[in-house]
Amino acid sequence: MAASPRIAVFPGSFDPLTNGHVDLIERATHLADRVIVAVLKNAGKQPLFGVDDRVAMIREVFAGRAEVVADAFSGLLMDYARAHKASIVIRGVRSAADLDYERQMALTNRHLNPDVDTVLLLPSAGVGHISSSLVREIASLGGSVHGMVPPAVETWIARRSSAARTHSV
Ligand code: PNS
């Protein structure tokens, strides 16, 4: 009997997807047969992109990579993981502060569903400083996010900025 595929969920806000996320997703594909990048439908205060756009840009960046799928979710992550037969959750850890937060979340998720393990991954040296919130800040102040996000996401941000300029004149 063939073993069932190992499915990983990488949940997050991804507003927007950064090169740090891409690095972690690539690492996750070595651990699982399928990686579901799951964008939380949260009512974040000042999102740069809507959830549908975030899912679309992840699909664009990973086009042609059947093992990486993007989706949106709401509700409990552990319910989503159960519904999609995922056995691992992927999260990244850049710092001690991240570890503190991720540890509490991973242990709480294990309390909710002991069948799912959280795998905490360290980023590559060159991307460990990147965060979506800093990318949003730089983009909103008109700075360049080149090298911090994939080229396709840079294009989404440039389009968003030029649309904002057009609407403000
Ligand atoms: O990128 P983020 O904003 O740090 O991601 C946070 C996320 C989406 C992983 C977390 O908020 C989450 O899993 N939310 C779903 C609701 C849930 O399951 N809460 C209990 C987790 S301990």
Largest sheet: 5 strands, parallel
CATH architecture level-2 label = 3-Layer(aba) Sandwich
Structural class comes to alpha/beta
The SSE order reads EHEHEHEHEHH
Number of helices: 6
Principal-axis shape equals globular
Structurally, the number of domains stands at 1
State the strand order across the main sheet.
3-2-1-4-5
The end-to-end span amounts to: 64 Å
The Rg value, from CA coordinates, equals 16 Å
The overall average pLDDT, rounded, is 95
User: Would you tell me which CATH topology applies?
Assistant: Rossmann fold
Beta-strand residue percentage: 15-25%
Q: Which bin fits the share of residues in helices?
A: 40-55%
In this entry the ligands are: 4'-phosphopantetheine
Number of strands: 5
Stretches with pLDDT under 50, minimum 5 residues? none
CATH homologous superfamily (4th level) name: HUPs
Top CATH class: Alpha Beta
Topology:
Elements: E1 7-12, H1 19-29, E2 34-40, H2 51-61, E3 68-73, H3 77-83, E4 88-92, H4 96-112, E5 117-121, H5 132-140, H6 151-168
Parallel strand pairs: 1-2, 1-4, 2-3, 4-5
The structure holds 4'-phosphopantetheine.
Keywords:
169 residues; alpha/beta; Rossmann fold; five-stranded parallel sheet; 5 strands; 43% helix; globular; binds 4'-phosphopantetheine
Q: What would you note in describing this structure?
A:
The chain is of the alpha/beta class. The chain has one domain (7-168): HUPs (Rossmann fold, 3-Layer(aba) Sandwich). The chain contains 6 helices and 5 strands, in the order E-H-E-H-E-H-E-H-E-H-H. A 5-stranded parallel β-sheet has the order 3-2-1-4-5, with helices on both faces. 4'-phosphopantetheine binds at residues 11-13, 40, 76-77, 105, 108-109.
